[in-house]
Amino acid sequence: MLLRSSETRSPPEAVVVPAPRGRLFRKYVGLFVAVVCAALAAKALLDGWFSFQEQKALLGRIQYEQAKAAAMRIGQFVGELQGQLGWATQFPWNTNAADDWQLDAERLLRQVEAITELRQLDAEGREQFCNFRFAVCPKNATSADLSHDPAFTQAVAHGVYFGPVRFERESEPFMTVAMRGRRREYGVIVAEVNLKFIWDVVTDIKVGTAGRAFVVDPGGRLIAHPEISLVLRNTDMSHLAQVRAALAEPSSASPERLAAEEPPPLVAEDIEGRQVLSVHAHVVPLGWRVFIELPLDEAYASIYQSFLRSGAILLAALLLAAFAGLYLARRMVIPIRTLRDGAARIGQGDLTLRLAIDTGDELQELGNQFNSMAGLLQDSYASLERKVEERTHQLELANLAKSRFLAVASHDLRQPLHALGLFVAQLRTAATDSERARVVGRIDTAIATMNELFKALLDISQLDAGALAPNVTEFPVVTLLERLDATFAGAAADAGLNLRVIANAAWVRSDFVLLEQVLFNLVSNAIRYTTQGGVLIGCRKRGEQLRIEVWDTGTGIPEDQRQRIFEEFYRLDYAQRDRKGLGLGLAIVDRLCRLLGHSVELSSAVGGGSRFTVVAPRAAETTIVAESPMLAPELLNLAVGKLIVVIDDDALALDGMAGLLRSWGCRVVAARSAEKALIDLSGVEGPPDLIISDFHLSDRKTGIEAVEELHAAFDVPVPAFLVSGDISPALREEARGRGYHLLHKPVDPMTVRTMLNRLLRKSPP
Fold this sequence. Notes:
seven-stranded mixed β-sheet; alpha+beta; 25 strands; disordered N terminus; six-stranded antiparallel β-sheet; single chain
C-alpha cells in the first residue's frame, strides 16, 4: 500500500522541496548551448556557402563581360578589315584598270594602318599586282602562280580566309587575310595584317591588381599576352585545363552561338602555377579565345573577410547562448527537481504532500496537476478495496461462464454415451445380420465421437499444463499430405465433398506429430462445416517459409468472430445450433502453433469459404520424394482439345502455364509477345479458342493490347482473360472496363480451370 489509512485522512501539506544543482541542470545547459550552437553554425555555413557561390558567379560574370568586350573589339577590328578589303573586290581585274587599282590599294593602306602588304590575284591564282607599305614590290612577284596557296584556294572556296598567326623578325605578329570578289573572275585580294592592335586590346584590360588577359588561336597557341616574351616564344597554352576545356567545346556549334553562350567560371592553374578563376569568350570570325584570369586569393578576398566577420558574430552568439542557457536551465530545472522529490515522497506513501511551485508558466500548471493527482490517489485508495471486490466478483462470473461451457461439453459427451447405451440394447435384440451390422456401424460412430471429444479435452489440459515438448526434426511435407489424404478421403466422400491434396516436394522443420495434429484439426473442421463443394490442401514455398494451406467451400466466418474462434469452447452460431464440435479444435491449433513457433493465418468470406494457413520454416530437400496418390477432382473440363494461346514475358511463368494446360489435354501456343504468337499461329487453321495474357509485357504493351491485336488479326472476338502480379485497384478497374477478367498471381490451378470452363461455356461452338 502507498500509505496507512490514517495518512489518507490527514490534511494536505504544502511544502517546497529544495532542489540543488545536479546532472539534470548540466544536461539542460549543455543541450541548450549545443542546439543554439548547431543552429548558428549551420546558418553561418549555409550563408557562407551561398555567399561563396554568388560571389563566384558574380566574379565570373564580370570577367566574362570583360572577355566578351575584348572579343567584340577584336571581332570589330576584323570586321572593319573585311569591309575595307571588300571595296577592293568590287570590280574584275584587268590591265587597263591597273592604275585605278594602284590608287585603291594606296588608299586602303592609308586608311587601315594594320595592313602592310596587298596582292591582287586573278581568277587563275596568278599575282597581277602588289603594294607594300614599308618596301617596294619585287619585280618578279608579278605573274607568280599562287593558285595552290591556301590563301587563294580557301578564299575561292569560302569567300574569306584567315591565315595562322606568325611572327616576323620575332617581334610582331602577322596574319594573312584573303577575300574573293563578288564573282570568280574578279579574282582574290590578299592582305598581310599586323596584329599589334590585339596586343593593345589585351594590355588595356585591367583585372583586379594581379589578374591578366590573353588570347589563343584555335590550336591553343598564344597570340597576345601582357608578357610579350611568352608570345614571341610561340608558347603553346593547350596544356592548361581552362584552355583545353575551351578548345574542347563542340565544333558543331556555330560561332555566333558559342559567342552568345556564357561559359561557367573555371578554377584552374595559370601558366605560372597559381590557382586562378578563369573565364573565356569567343572571337567569332577567327575561332580565337580571349581568357580573363584572376588569382583566387584576390577573387575570394571579400568572401574570406565575410567568413571572419561571421565567425566573430558566431562566437559572440555562442557566449550569449551559454549565459542564456544557464539562466533558463536554472529556471526550468529547479521546479523539475521539486517535482521529482515530491513524486518520491508520494511513492513512499505520503499522499498528503502538496507542492508549491510559483513560476507562472507550464511548470506551475504541472505542479497543480501533480497536487490534483495526489488528491485523486487519496480518493482512489479509499475505493481500492471496493474495486478489488468488484474484480473478484468478475473473476467468479468468468469461472461460472467457463463452468457453463463445461456443462455444454458434458452434454456433448453424454450424447454419444447415451446413444451408445441404446445401440448396445438394440444389438442384444437384433434379429438379422443386416440389422446387427447397422447397429455396429452406429456404435463405431458413437465411440469415434467420444474419442474425439476426450482427445480434445486431453490436448487442452496438456497444453495448459505445459506437458508437451516439441521434438523438432526435418521431414518431407508430402508424408503429411499423404496421411491427410488417406485419413479424410472417406469422410469427405461420405459427406459428398471433393477432397483434393496437392503433393509438394518441400521439406519442413517441425515436430511431425504436433504439426500433423494441427493439420488434422484444420481438415476435420473444414469437412465438418462444409456442406457442399470440397476441401483443398496444398503448400506454397515463400522464401525460407513453407505455407501449408487448407481451403474449404463452407459458409465462411464473419469478420467479427475470426479472433474468437481460436478461444476454447467457442463455437459459431450455426455450429452451436447444429451441435457440431466441442469448440476446442482451433484453440488446440492456436496453442500448438505457438508451441512450435509457427504462425496460423485465417482468410474467410461469408458464403465464400475459408482458408487456414500454417507457416513453418523450410528445410533443405535432401531426397526426392514421389508424389502421393491423389484423388482426381471431379470437375468439368471443357478445355480438352481446345487451342489456347498463352502470352507472358516471363519464361518460367509462360512454361508453367503452358505445361498445366497441356496436362489438361489442351493444345497450347506459348509466346512472349502478340507478334510471336501470330507467327506461331500462322500454320494453324482457324482462330484460337481462348487467350490467356499477362497484363504487363516487356515490349511496353499491355495484355489488353496483345489480346486486341489477336482479335484484329483473326477478326473474331476470341474469349480471353488476364493474369498479373499487380494488385492495384486501377489495374483491376481498367481490365473490368475493357470487359476482361483479371486473376492475380499466384493463380491457383483450380481457379484457372474454373475460368477456362466459364469462358469456354459462354463462347459459341
